[in-house]
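ZP: hey, is the pyridoxal-5'-phosphate complex queued? I don't see it on the tracker
AM: it wasn't, my bad. submitting now with these inputs:
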Amino acid sequence: MEFKDLQEKDSAYIANTYSRFAAEIYSGQGATLCTEDGRRFIDFGSGIAVNSFGVNDEEWKKAVIAQLNKVQHASNLYYTRPQAELAELLCKKSGAKKVFFSNSGAEANECAIKTARKYSYDKYGEGRFHIVTLKNSFHGRTIATLSATGQDSMHKYFMPFLDGFSYAEPTFAGVKKECGDGTCAVMLELVQGESGVNALDEGEVRKIEKFCKERDILLIIDEVQTGNGRTGRLYAYQHYGIAPDIATTAKGLAGGLPLGATMFFDKTEKTLAAGDHGSTFGGNPAACAGALSILSRIDDKLLLEVQGKAAYLRTHLGRIRNVLSVSGLGLMIGLEISVNAREAAEKCLSRGLIVLTAKNKLRLLPPLTIGKGEMDEGLKILNEVLSE
Ligand SMILES: *Cc1c(COP(=O)(O)O)cnc(C)c1O
């Protein structure tokens, strides 16, 4: 099928929710992607921080295929090994006590919201259900997670949204102002991804943590995008030296298969009881086998490599003409530029580089395993496009 036929079929039959870039992703190796007719792209996007180890990773494929050769799905009515083993590994690496598996970031956050409300209901009774999130946050596309998302542009058409959310400035004073007697949780992205790759200030976050602990307000950290090595630590909260009560993750967890995880720490490990929550697909054994392969290789050595690559890219990006600032943490990089971001991303694509946007910034999320040659090729194209 010619590319233009694919485009026609796609626009005839796929709902109009995406404005796609004009390229088919057909195959690839590592951080290099290909179209069917042989065009190559360096990948600074990882399918939005999903393909943690790039594409066609041998060990990951072997793990997933080995599971597919046994059983592809069992439902949560029965036991499967990859799920229990992955939960154990996640707990050991993160300090969490228990895990609930779902299929996406939105679902992981939905579970966090339900858990925070139940924790508070069990302990304080009705009425303590309010959750403070931040302005410019992004927590997902379901009605509850859209309600949690602090962007007016997302609060259209689908009314009524859920009661019980308010949006704070991203500072201690801002969060404190929104917290009242009815507040059960504060939910944060430590590096706001979709709204421009902005890292929160460490001092402010520590003050928020202390304030929450004093009032038994649960601290929920949304690590859907920042998690699984992306920032140079396994989870971004480890950079901040804070202890969440609930942490959620998804995107990069299973290296390209759909999997969400809600991690419960000391206070919340016993909050959900039988029947309180569930998912048909959640914790699918093939996805969990993939995640085990990824998570078991995100060790100190790999994290050091991620930090080294991040430093290398950041240094070189900062020198490119028309780059006004470089933001984010680790391999989650925002580029404030003096030209239109969507147009710059399209030009990059036409020259063989995939980059993402976040508001009017370019957003770079390369695979954690990207090679030096691939980084240099990508930097060269960015330099050409932005210097024009
Ligand atoms: C992507 C993202 C989500 C939503 O994840 P989905 O898998 O698309 O539902 C939630 N929170 C953050 C911080 C994200 O980056």
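AM: back. The chain has a mean pLDDT of 98.
ZP: great, adding it to the tracker
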